Amino acid sequence: MASSSEQEFAKEYRARLDRFPRSRFLWDSKTASRVGDKIAIRLREIGISGVRIDAQEELSRPIYYRKMLGPFFDSVKRTGIAVEGAEDLIFLG
Q: 3-class SS at 70?
């Protein structure tokens, strides 16, 4: 699966890590969207056309973990992967 630790994201990650004062949030909406695109492409390559998420589990997470779910799921949906359960989430950020 795609992650923000891939080579494509390493330069941006190091730049944010070395910034002072350090930011708690290493992802922004652009990074979340790019990771979502990569995951969706890989899901299509292996033949998966839809995923289901547990909205209650996602809502139980702290807000700072849920902040980038909107851009992430939007980019997954844009590439043609159905995301069931995302409509029940309140997107922040």
A: helix
